[in-house]
Amino acid sequence: MQIRGSMQTAAEFEKLQLLIKHEAVGSMPQSVRMRYEDRLAVLRRTLRTETHSYPLGAILVSIGAVTDEQLNRALRIQSQSNNPKLLGEFLVEMNIIGHDKLTHALTIQRSTASSSYSQIT
Quick check: 77 and 40 in contact, CB under 8 A? Predict the structure, then answer.
């Protein structure tokens, strides 16, 4: 049950993040944008505390989306930053990967969690 819940949280996070990013600044009321950003902060905290049997960084390296050096640099910057952003967000902002690669890696991560869950039940 926890895995399905975390998959829904991750999916909601991705949708809100893309909605905010792609929505024209002037067309979204400020109050709506603030509610979305508040919800993103809650989802970010939830996702940060989750552990996965296959960490996102390891998946990105295994599919050739990032090198070990790029991953280590992003992890170092993330750990030194007061910014609460997730690893995938840092990698996209640093132009190391695109949203398509991030989405692909997250899909792999969720599918491995889901298949592990189905093997248990």
Answer: no
Q: Where are the alpha helices (DSSP H) in the chain?
A: 2-22, 30-49, 56-62, 68-80, 87-93, 99-120
- List, for residues 25-49, the tens digit of each pLDDT value: 567 788 887 888 887 777 777 766 7
Output the pTM of the full model.
0.63
Q: How many CB atoms lie within 10 A of CB 72?
A: 12
Rounded CA separation 18/39 (Å): 13
**Which residue, 52, 59, 55, 89, is CA-closest to 74?**
89
Give the residue carrying structure tokens 């750990």: 79
% the chain with pLDDT above 70: 69
> Could you give the CA distance from residue 115 to residue 1 in angstroms, rounded to a whole number?
13
Domain edges within the chain = 2-120
